[in-house]
């Protein structure tokens, strides 16, 4: 590695001129091939851009990173990100490249001085390892919820109606819908005030059903046929999800072995189930934070399968249990139903996504179900990169 001293650098150009890339990359760029979807090609582009920028500085400013990323996208617009400003993933890739290249130079005077000037310390994060050591954070709530026409007495009447209907083998859907609609604003007020999920679910027992959670999501975000929308959108990207997960987890190997032993008519359902299970892997998250065979060690909504091993989970249809905040919320008839309802629980009970699940859940929210909330942050670089490869 060549070490440049501070006085050897020139001024960063006002207009950045893209360098000539290696012949194989330049040919692909000239023929408008999607190099950003091929990791080796992308790394070569970032490397050449880094080497060109490093002739001027090892500490580019944010505006200089943006200048280079914009120049790349302007010259080759087919390299744009699917979401956001179009160049965010290139911006972040360049920043990471410079950081990695500076690491071995930690004892160099220039790098040491810059670290002392701009260094920062990260505060340790508590691991999410058991229910007693972590509490769930809440989603953003910017509006004061007003309740008109109801009081504690009338709400009590409605909840008693719901509880009686819940005990019936065949509840009257009209009565249930009417009572859930009349208590909706009051219920949202209770959730916003921090009433525990189990208390809310027991008071309004139809929230302890997959259909009830999906209907509540419809009241919150006006999404009809949520399960149908999820299935249709997920089927469009399923082949690419499975392709991106290839070779990245022992679970994927178990799935492929089970697939080889299965009948052809069983493969579509098996592939769909595998896609749901393996989805977190492509976002660099752990499967067990979303779907698990073991008892969940977290207060966040988690789908627990009732199968004894992953092979039977892939090959056989069976019930799943969704647990949240330390209690069993409901039993779903099959995996897909459990996964969708567990996702809905974050909104219904006003839980913010924990960091170790955020990429997958944000992707489901914003890209599959097309749900946007006021104050949503831009998609992370990780999500945008995967989005570029899926669509």
TrEMBL record:
<feature type="compositionally biased region" description="Polar residues">
    <location>
        <begin position="126"/>
        <end position="137"/>
    </location>
</feature>
<feature type="region of interest" description="Disordered">
    <location>
        <begin position="118"/>
        <end position="137"/>
    </location>
</feature>
<protein>
    <submittedName>
        <fullName>Sterile alpha motif domain-containing protein 3-like isoform X2</fullName>
    </submittedName>
</protein>
